[in-house]
């Protein structure tokens, strides 16, 4: 199969590889934050739920890595450094405030994951890639809905002032990270095009 065809339609391989790499980097950013949040949370039920969701993210990272390799690409091993540190910092800064503050940092990351996967899931990809991204998008929607609900149970629901501030924070924080990651994705794609064999 030529590298411009993966199925019936001709596809833009560097663009597909850059999208997959962007999602894999998002997963690479997310995994250390889960470990920080799991060790910092006090409630064992919250910890347990995050362990289950961390397994989802590990599977996402494995499946994206396999697909990038299948398409002849090289999976990125590093996270998006600037936003990775930013997001980790949000988690660390939340530590003294108890479970509610940790979940506040967590919900902003899950919001960004949900939004980013949903945007990619709406693109016209080859079937196998569309199925994978669609299933990851569904997992991220579950994670975000759970985190929002858990905050509500801790008195931080969307109807409360703190809850509204949390959601505003999540959107602002997630959007800033998206802009930085968008720049990273565009330069990755440019490199993939330049280094592509004719
Ligand atoms: Fe994920
Ligand atoms: Fe998630």
Offer a concise description of the structure:
The chain has 198 residues and is mainly α. 77% of the residues lie in helices and 0% in strands.
Explained architecture:
The chain is mainly α. The protein has a single domain (10-193), classed as Ferritin, CATH 1.20.1260.10. 77% of the residues lie in helices and 0% in strands. The relative contact order is 0.15. The structure holds fe (ii) ion (2 copies). One fe (ii) ion (FE2) binds at residues 53, 57, 110, 113, 140, 143.
Helix content: over 70%
Task: Return the CATH architecture.
Answer: Up-down Bundle
Order of helices and strands: HHHHHH
**What average pLDDT do the residues reach?**
80
Shape: elongated
CATH superfamily: Ferritin, core subunit, four-helix bundle
Q: What small molecules does this complex bind?
A: fe (ii) ion
Major β-sheet annotation: none
How many domains? The number is: 1
Task: Detail the poorly predicted runs.
Answer: 1-8
Secondary-structure-derived class: mainly alpha
How many strand units? 0
User: What is the terminal separation in angstroms?
Assistant: 15 Å
Number of helices: 6
Highest CATH level, the class: Mainly Alpha
Radius of gyration: 18 Å
CATH topology: Ferritin
Query: Which percent band covers the strand fraction?
Result: under 5%
């Amino acid at each position: 199969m030529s590298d411009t065809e993966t199925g019936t339609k001709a596809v833009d391989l560097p663009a597909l590889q850059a999208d997959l790499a962007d999602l894999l980097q998002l997963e690479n950013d997310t995994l250390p934050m889960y470990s920080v949040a799991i060790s910092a949370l006090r409630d064992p039920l919250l910890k347990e739920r995050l362990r289950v969701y961390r397994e989802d993210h590990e599977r996402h990272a494995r499946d994206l890595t396999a697909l990038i390799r299948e398409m002849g690409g090289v999976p990125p091993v590093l996270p998006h450094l600037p936003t990775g540190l930013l997001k980790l910092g949000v988690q660390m800064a939340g530590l003294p405030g108890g479970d509610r503050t940790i979940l506040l940092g967590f919900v902003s990351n899950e919001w960004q994951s949900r939004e980013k996967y949903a945007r990619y899931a709406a693109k016209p990809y080859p079937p196998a890639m569309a199925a994978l991204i669609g299933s990851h998008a569904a997992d991220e929607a579950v994670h975000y809905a759970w985190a929002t609900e858990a905050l509500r149970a801790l008195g931080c629901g969307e109807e409360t002032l703190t809850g509204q501030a949390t959601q505003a924070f999540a959107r602002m924080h997630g959007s800033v990270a998206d802009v930085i990651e968008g720049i990273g994705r565009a330069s990755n794609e440019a490199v993939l095009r330049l280094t592509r064999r004719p």
